Amino acid sequence: MTTPDDHPRGDERSDRELLQAHVDGDAAAFGELFARHRDRLWAVALRTMGHPEDAADGLQDGMIAAFRRAGSYRGDAAVTTWLHRVVVNACLDRMRSAKIRRFEALPDDVEDRGTVVATAVHDDQPEAVAEDAERRRRVLDALATLPAEQRAALVLVDMEGYPVAEVAEMLGCAEGTVKSRCSRGRTKLAQLLADLHHPAGDPPHGNPPPDGPVQPSVRPRGPPAP
Amino acid sequence: MTESSGLPPEQEAVRRLLAEARHDGPPPPEVVSRLDDTLADLVAERADADTSPGRVVDIGSRRRRIAGIGLLAAASVVVAGVAIGQVLPRGGGDASDSSAGSASDSSLAEAPTSEDDGGAESGTDLDGGADSQAREPQESFLSPGLADRPTLFSDDDEDIIGQLVEIRPDATDARQRLRSLAALRSCEGVEPGRSAALVAATVDGESGLVVFRPPVGEAQDVELYVCGDPEPVRTVTLPSP
């Protein structure tokens, strides 16, 4: 993970310099620092919270906490790791406080720019676009069924690609705990998404139901058994 | 992607699906705008704190001064209570009452008197000795007891939010604020700042403080301190009250 923290470009201040400047009273420093990492923090908040509005709340909470707690940064980890930790904790706190509404399906990816980017390569293949969007929706719906800690670990490790050791720092737990959470989460997702990762050649089974748990790929025909 | 190697095929497939579902791109404009507004509020808040007359003196000395004033006022209440109790005949409740009342109006120090029992009750029931009633508050002020404090643990992820929401009203309760001033006096190293609301607590088994920051937008930061450690041992974000 190369960040301005490690290699500031030109006369650009490093993350640490910006954070220190903020602590020292530079009114613009924190904004510059946060803007530098905002997109990725947003991605983590969005995938962890599952809904854009909740993600906005979580990211805002994290930003406020980081602004006020900058003086507590001890320099043990990279600033970006620290920022992720603060934001993820803010998101988890929000989820634990049960103040967010119950998870709802993402609103047709209207605000999910990732979908736009991902599907742009299929502009001339509407079926492929629809298939991509559907698969993404299924994955995100399944992800939302996981406990918050497992979800956060998978978002950081599998979606964002952070090393386990760095995620352990972000989540404030041992590396083994991160691996365990990821493994358990993947196992659950593998069950929920079995039809999406069947070997090539396995024919599709039609559209999944719009709501509720993922159904088995092979359904019994006829009336239900008495 | 250090996790990708050596995974069972099913887990590797899930990992790939998750990677494909990652989000790219900036937050929506309305979110960016909201973050910008919040940041502007934070910067303004800090600028106000930095330029206010109260900041001419550093926070630590200000805290010690407040605590000193509180202690002095508490001692005054004790002396007044003892003197009135000795001078006035029994039944002179009105005089005592008004004396205590005026002290409480003009000073931060009377709050400890109502720490354990209702202020009205202690003010009206003078029969039985003003001495004892005056002394008890002073003792509790000088050495805030742990018995009535909320007990919090920084690594408690399950209950801490509920506990903090429960004690949050205490932070704005007048009696609690004054009690917290006493706790702050004996909590060296913690400087929560002027705008914070405090609740004395037992944190990780030690004397500590819960610091409620002013809400910003829909969020309110809460910090848990152990006395002697200038850094919070835990920060939690609550929805604004």
Automatic annotation (TrEMBL), chain A:
InterPro entries, alphabetized: RNA_pol_sigma-70-like, RNA_pol_sigma-70_dom, RNA_pol_sigma70_r2, RNA_pol_sigma70_r4_t2, RNA_pol_sigma_r2, RNA_pol_sigma_r3/r4-like, WH-like_DNA-bd_sf
Please report the stretch or stretches of sequence annotated as the RNA polymerase sigma factor 70 region 4 type domain: 137-189
What residue range is the signal peptide? none
Cell membrane as a keyword of this entry, yes or no, is no
Question: Which residues does the annotated region (Disordered) include?
Answer: 195-226
Boundaries of every RNA polymerase sigma-70 region domain copy: 33-99
- Lineage, top-rank taxon, reads Bacteria
Keywords per UniProt:
DNA-binding, Sigma factor, Transcription, Transcription regulation
Q: What segments bear the compositional bias annotation Pro residues?
A: 201-213
Family, per the entry?
A: Belongs to the sigma-70 factor family. ECF subfamily.
According to UniProt, the name of this protein is RNA polymerase sigma factor SigM
Which species?
Nocardioides pinisoli
TrEMBL record, chain B:
Which of UniProt's keywords are assigned here? Membrane, Transmembrane, Transmembrane helix
Top-level lineage group: Bacteria
Membrane-crossing ranges are 66-88
The Low complexity compositionally biased stretches are: 95-107
Q: Where is this region: Disordered?
A: 88-154
What's the protein here called?
A: Uncharacterized protein
From which organism does this entry originate?
Answer: Nocardioides pinisoli
Tell me the lineage of the source organism: Bacteria, Bacillati, Actinomycetota, Actinomycetes, Propionibacteriales
